[in-house]
Amino acid sequence: MSQAEKTEKVITAAQRAEMERFQPMWKIVLTQFFEHRMAVVGLCVISFFIAVALLAPIIASVTGLDSERQNALNRYKPINSYVTVSTDEREAKVTEFIKDHADEASALQVELMTKGLVQPPRPEDALFELVGKEPQEALKILAQIPTEPATHLAKVVRDFESHHWLGTDELGRDVFIRLVYGTRVSMGVGILVAIASSLIGLLIGALAGYYGGAVDTILMRVTDSLLSLPILPIQIVIAAIDLNKVPGLGFLVGDENQSIYKLVFILVLFSWMTVALLVRGSILSLREREFILAAKTLGATDATIIFRHMFPNVVAPMLVSVTLGVGESILWEAALSFLGLGIQQPTPSWGNMLFNAQDLMTEAPFLAILPGLLILATTISFNYLGDGLQDAIDPKAIRR
Amino acid sequence: MTTYIIRRLIQTVVVIVLLSYVCFSLMTLMPGDPVELMIQSNPKVTSEDVARLRSLYGLDQPSYVRYFNWVKTIAAGDLGYSRTYRIPVSELMGPKLLNTFYLSLASLLLSILISVPLGIYSALHPGSKTDDAINFFAFAGISVPSFWLAIMLILTFSVYFKIFPAGGTFTIGIDETPSWDFFVDRSKYLVLPTVSLAYQQIGRFLRFTRSAMLEAMRNDYIRTAKAKGLSYSRVIWGHGFRNALIPLITILALSFSSLFSGALITETVFAYQGVGKLVYDSIIGNDFNVAMVSFIISVAMVLLFNLIADILYGVVDPRISYK
What we know:
Mean pLDDT of chain A: 83
Largest interface: A-B, 45 and 47 residues
Shape of chain B: globular
Radius of gyration of chain B: 24 Å
Shape of chain A: elongated
Oligomer: heterodimer
Structural class of chain B: mainly alpha
Largest sheet of chain A: 2 strands, antiparallel
Strand order of the largest sheet of chain A: 1-2
Helix content of chain A: 55-70%
Helix content of chain B: over 70%
Radius of gyration of chain A: 30 Å
Low-confidence stretches of chain B: none
Mean pLDDT of chain B: 85
Largest sheet of chain B: none
Order of helices and strands of chain A: HHHHEHHHHHEHHHHHHHHH
Strand content of chain B: under 5%
Low-confidence stretches of chain A: none
Number of helices of chain B: 12
Order of helices and strands of chain B: HHHHHHHHHHHH
C-alpha cells in the first residue's frame, strides 16, 4: 500500500471538512495554475523581462551606459571587456577640467610634483602625464592624494573607462544596454500587437457569431482566407511600402518611431483571425443559452447583450490566446526585423540586433547568440504561461 | 463531392485574383519604379525622356489599368523578364520551385517522423519525466526563432565542426546531371536547412499529436476495446490513433502556409535557391515581374495544398460530408 493511500485512511473530520469546503472559482483556477510548475516559472521570467523593460532608463542611468553611443575604435569587443577612451579625448577632458577649475588644477599639480607621483618633462604637464596612464593606474595615484581636487579629478578619470559586460557590437555600442532597450521594444510590440489583435478579433468574432447570416458568411470567408495565406511574403510586401507614396500617411515619414508603427500595423493585420474564430465559436453557443434569452426578453439592446452578457464569458479563453499571441508576435517581430524590414536602426530590438550580428557571426558569435536566447526565453515563457492558463480555466482539467 | 471541389476551386481562384490585385497595387507603393531605376545609371536622361519612358511602359496610367495590362500579358503566356537575373521569369521559376519543394518535403517528412511517435509516447505516459522532457522539447520548438536556430546550426555544424556547408544549394561547378554523387552533394546542403525548418513544425505537430491522442484515449470506446480483450497495440493504433488522425490532418493542412513562411526565412539564411528566397530578393531588389509571379505562384501553391487537405479529410473521417 502506498504512502498516499495510507494517509488518506487516517483523514480526520476537520481535514475532510476542509476538503469539502466551498471554494470560489478564482481560487480553484489559481490553485490549478500554480500546480503547473513550468507555467509559474514562465510567469517569473516574463515578470523579470517586463521589469527590465520598464526600468530600462533607470538601468541605463545607474550603469552610465548609453544605448546609442558609438565607438568606432572598439567594435566587436568580447564579453566582459574594458574600453578606454582615446588619448586625445582624455587630454581634451583634462584641458576642460583645467579651464573650469584653474585653482584646483594648479593645487593638484603642485601636490603631484612634490610627492613625486608623476615625472613629466615639464611641471605644467603633470595632469596630462597622469591621465596619459591607464585609467586604473591614474585612479590609484589619485587615491594617494586625500584632497578635494583629487577626488574631483578622479570622477573625471573614472569616465575614461567603460565596462562592457557583454562586449560591444558592430558600431562599438554596448551590447548589454542595447539588449535592455531591445527588451523594451520587443516586449512592447509583442504585448501591444497581442492586445490590439485580440480586440479586433473579439469585435469581428462577436459580430459574426451574434448576427450570423450574411455578416457571418462574409466575415468568416475573410478570416478563413487570411488564415490560409502564407503570411510572411505578404507582410514583406507591406513592410516594403514607401509611406511617402501612400496618400494621408506622409506625416509619419521622418518620425523616429515610424518603423515601429508600421510593424505593429502589419502584425495586427494578420494576427486577429484565431481570436475571431474562438470568439465566434463561444458566442454561437452562448446565443442559445437561457440567460441571453432572458436579457432579450427584458428588452436589452444588442450592444448590451454582446458587451454586458457575452463578453465576460469569453474573457477567459481570450486571455489564453492573448498570452500565446504575445509570444507569437515577438517571434514575428524578430523575423521581420531579422529580414531588415521591421524595426529600423538605431532603435534596438532583439530581431534587428540579430540582423546586424549576421555579418560577422564567426568572429563575434555572442552578438548572434544573446538576442536569440532572450527571444527563446521570452516566447517559451509565454507559451508555457498560456498552457498553464488554459489548463487552469479548462473545467475538464480540474482535478478536484 | 464534385460540386464541393468545384466550389472550392472557384473560391481559391477568386482569392488569388483579389490578392494579386492587392499585391500589385501595394507594389506600386514601394520605393523606386522601373523608370527611376533605369535613369539612375544614365545622367543624360532628360525629363521628356522620363515622361516618354513612363508612357511607353504604361506607368503614367492608374494602377487598375496597369493591372489589367499585366494580367493580359500573363494570360498570353508572357511572364516578363527579370531585371536582376537577366533571364525570362518563366525560366527562373522552375528550378526554384523544385528546390523549395525538396526542402519543404524533407522537413515535413522529418517533422512527422519525429513528432508523431514522440507525441503518441508522451500521450500514453502523461505526467512522466519523459513526458515533461518531450513537452519541453515541443515548447522550445514552437518558441525558437527559426532564423536564430539556423544561425546556431551554422555556427555549430559548419563553422565549428565543419561537417555541413554553411549555405548554398549544391557545390558550385559540380556535374549537375542526375547521379549518385550529385544526390549526395545536394543532400549535404539540404541537411541544416531541413533541420531548422522542421524543428518549428515538430513543436506544433508534437503538441497536437499529444493532445489529440490524449483526447482519443479518453473515449468510452477505448475502454470497451480494452474490455473486449484486444491487444494493447491494437487499441492504440486501431482505435486511439485512427481517431487522433483527424485533428492531426487539420494541423498538417494548415501547416503548409507556415511551412512556406518558414521556408522563406530558412532559404534566406542559408542562401538556398528556392522560391522563398526569390520572393524576398525580388521584393527587396525591386524586381517587379519576378516578385509578382513568384508571389502569386507561392500563394496559389499554398491554397491548392489546403484544398487537397480538405478533400483528404473525407477519406480519413467518413463522418464529414461535403455539402
